[in-house]
Amino acid sequence: MPDAVHIPEVIEPDEKLPRDLVALRKFAYFMDQAFQIPGTRFRAGFDAVLGLIPGVGDVIGGAMSAWIVIGAIRHRVPARIVARMVLNIVIDLVFGAVPLAGDVFDFLFEENMKNMRLLEKHRNRRHPPRSTGEMTLIGILVFALIISIAISIVVGFIALVVWLLREVPWV
């Protein structure tokens, strides 16, 4: 990984960002672009690798992605943008739950990088970030929300597969 990660469309280099945003930027890179797929120009990260683990991989990836959403709330990103960030994670969870096609989707849809761009673009630079004390309950609630959505998607997908196996006449 390069020492300084620069996300296009973002004005501020690592040296001018608060330390927690630099850490989140590196985390997004690790999750979505850490290594190049040999013989292609595509990059993938730990999120795509986690997605290969049936059932729990997408849940773990979604839970880890909550860190950027919590960072956005800490840096006072507007609620509608935070909702868009959560939606990006949900999209990754829904499509990632589909066997094989979901694994390909995980490699192509970089929700962590998208969410990091939204955070950096919309953070409130006029007010200081929220304190750890202010963020504790909010962080727990965001994490619980994303875990609940992820588990619901996995359970719903399993229920759909079981229903299809019972109801659809197989030749």
Output the keywords:
171 residues, 7 helices, 67% helix
Question: Helices, strands, pairings?
Answer:
Layout (H helix, E strand, L loop, with lengths): L18 H15 L1 E2 L6 E2 L1 H6 L4 H19 L4 H18 L4 H8 L2 H12 L9 H36 L4
Antiparallel strand pairs: 1-2
Helix pairs in contact: 1-3, 1-6, 3-4, 3-6, 3-7, 4-5, 4-6, 4-7
Mean pLDDT: 87
Oligomer description = single chain
- Unreliable stretches (pLDDT < 50, length at least 5) are none
Helix content: 55-70%
Q: Name the strands of the widest sheet in spatial order.
A: 1-2
User: Number of helical runs?
Assistant: 7
Distance between the termini: 51 Å
Q: What structural class do helix, strand and pairing data support?
A: mainly alpha
H-E order: HEEHHHHHH
In terms of DSSP E residues, the strand content is under 5%
Rg, nearest Å = 17 Å
From the spread of the alpha carbons, the general shape counts as globular
Number of beta-strand segments? 2
Biggest sheet overview: 2 strands, antiparallel
Structural commentary:
By secondary structure, the protein is mainly alpha-helical. It contains seven helices and two strands. It has helices spanning 19-33, 46-51, 56-74, 79-96, 101-108, 111-122, 132-167, and strands at 35-36, 43-44. Helix 3 runs antiparallel to helix 4.
